[in-house]
Design brief:
The protein has one domain: Up-down Bundle (Fumarate Reductase Cytochrome B subunit), CATH 1.20.950.20. It contains 5 helices and no strands. The protein is an all-alpha fold and about 180 residues long. The relative contact order is 0.15. The longest helix is centred in the C-terminal third of the chain and has 36 residues.
Length: about 180
């Protein structure tokens, strides 16, 4: 596939740093809320909250970048239904990343808990303490994580299909993480 049909380095870095953070945060989130992790639970909470704050900023920058630099068009050889599914999957992935990070942030600060990374930069809580709001955001956060995992699974399945079955160059639009020089 021609180099101009792929994503640029900035989009690739946004993608792969997001992947790294999400794939670290989900297991940390599960572990920190599970029994049996005793001494490291506090460290997992601190990591999860800090990584979530970073991810929120990253996702907002990524959405802004995507608005400035739209995704390269898929080849006409890809059936229209697959192109529509891919478009909706990407829209829902972005939406769920925003919902997940915002609900996590609101859940923490409305619950009266610190986000140590933000405190280190002197960033005050933007939401007042409110137990009812914190509880609602906790439910939304959990739901959005499960939904995100489902859409990530669909995304990985589609990328694998294009890489290993169709071999049509679609997966190469985002891989490798750094665009090789021609």
């Amino acid at each position: 596939m021609a180099a101009d049909r792929g994503y640029g380095t900035v989009a690739r870095l946004f993608h792969w740093v997001t992947v790294l953070l999400v794939f670290l945060m989900i297991p940390a989130g599960i572990a920190m809320t599970s029994e049996g992790f005793g001494d490291i639970r506090n460290e997992l909470f601190i990591f999860h909250k800090g990584a979530g704050a970073v991810l929120l900023v990253l996702v907002l920058l990524r959405v802004a970048w995507r608005l400035i630099r739209p995704a390269p068009p898929m080849p006409e050889s890809v059936p229209a239904a697959q192109r529509r599914l891919a478009r909706w999957n990407h829209v829902l992935l972005y939406a769920l990343l925003v919902v997940m990070t915002v609900s996590g942030y609101v859940r923490v600060v409305a619950g009266g808990f610190p986000i140590e990374l933000l405190e280190a930069f002197g960033i005050p809580p933007l939401v007042p303490e409110n137990t009812d709001l914190a509880n609602r955001m906790s439910v939304l956060h959990k739901f959005s994580v499960y939904a995100l995992m489902a859409f990530i699974g669909a995304h990985i399945a589609a990328a694998s299909y294009h890489a290993f079955i169709a071999r049509d160059g679609i997966a190469g639009r985002m891989w490798p993480p750094f665009r090789p020089r021609a």
